[in-house]
Amino acid sequence: MKEYRNYQLKGNNTFGIPALCDRFIEYAGGEELKSLYEQGIFNGQWMSVGCGANLLFCGDYHGVIIHSVASGIKVLEENDNNLLVRADAGIILDDFIEHAVSNGWGGMENLSAIPCSVGAAPVQNVGAYGVEAKDVVECVHVFDTSNGLTRTFSNVECTFGYRNSSFKSNPQYVVLSVDFRLTKAGSHQLHLDYGNLRSSLPADITSGKEGALREIRGAVRRIRREKLPDPAEIGSAGSFFKNPVVDRAVVDNLLKDYPQMPFYEMKNGCKVPAGWLIEQAGWKGRKMGTVGVYEKQALVLVNLGGATGFDVWNLAQSIVASIRDKFGLEISPEVIKVP
Ligand code: EPU
Predict the structure, then answer these.
(1) What domains are there in the chain, each with its CATH number?
(2) Is 221 one of the annotated active-site residues of the chain?
């Protein structure tokens, strides 16, 4: 275990926003969390941070940040069709996907290049190009900071939703590792129907094609590079807002004024792309001092250099108000403001 005092978080959030935390502790697994529990760390102010890809620091954090550096990958069981793989929370999700694709394990290739740790993937139920973490998570092993015990959540117990899970409303659970059910050659199920994914791939792509997973991973990475800023170059947290889900009647009403508005029918309503709403409201590419709306994807707010968390937050609030005025819709941040 390693501990740092008065730790600078600028490199631990993809917005690249400077903020200090009182204590930053790197831990390697459940045993070390148990010892932190025995020291009473979880009785005070604390939070768990992976890659910091979904956080906006609006000031210093007066508490303890714990950060997993656990990095084990283990095949737990395997048959002709699929396998169950355990990955520790501290692994970068994209490194794990690279490992999976290199081994011919399918299921996560569409999630390539999402900046996130394995531990954060089920919390946020990360998703991209028609696949969500919930589609591949068999179970999640957690440490319960309320009683110092470990516990396993089955996929159903995680109550996954759109960018949501039971872990989001129960932050006492810290993810230790995740078991993923992945497919082997002959059993891959490709998801190619989202957006322009299929048209970015060779026409002969099939689940049986040698190298299909690698081709999909490559195409997803290319599409993301074209639309989303690389956090190493421009600070952002990916999509800043969630896409609002509204009743069909609301969509029908809006279609009268905006017949070209895209929307997707879901089980519980219709998802309207917030990126489209923000672009229509004239925000795309706008710069306001140190912050701006990314010119290639209006759902992404960017740090143009030297931004504070409040600069970003104020821009976000102006966007929310303008979408409310123009469309009567409420968009809410996917990003979590700290403190
Ligand atoms: N759109 C616009 N203008 C924009 C952006 C989007 O008109 O500036 C329209 C597009 O033309 C399209 C629709 O909005 O009709 C959807 O756009 P896109 O496919 O780019 O997806 P998104 O809804 O904007 C979501 C996720 C992304 C994920 C992509 C691809 C959320 C909040 N965002 O974005 O996730 O990569 O789908 O699956 O659900 C993230 O969560 O950080 C993230 C990047």
Answers:
(1) 2-68 (3.30.43.10), 73-227 (3.30.465.10), 235-338 (3.90.78.10)
(2) no
Which residues partner with 291 through β-bridges? 288, 303
What is residue 268's predicted lDDT score, i.e. its pLDDT?
87
Measured from CB, residues less than 6 Å from any atom of ligand 1 are: 128-129, 194-195, 227-228, 238-239, 242-243, 262, 273, 275-276, 279, 284, 297-299, 334
Average pLDDT (13-30) is: 98
Centre of ligand 1 from the C-alpha of residue 299, in Å = 7
- pLDDT value at residue 4: 98
Nearest to 155 by CA among 174, 172, 178, 175: 178
How far apart CA 44 and CA 42 sit, in angstroms, is 5
Which tokens hold the place of 22? 């009182």
Q: Would you say 50 and 80 are in contact if contact means Cβ atoms under 8 Å apart?
A: no
The answer to whether the pTM exceeds 0.90 is yes
Number of C-beta neighbours around residue 80 at 10 A: 9
- What is the band of 267 on the pLDDT scale with cuts at 50, 70, 90? confident
Residue 74 has pLDDT above 90, yes or no: yes
Backbone phi and psi for residue 321, each to the nearest 5 degrees, phi listed first? -65, -40
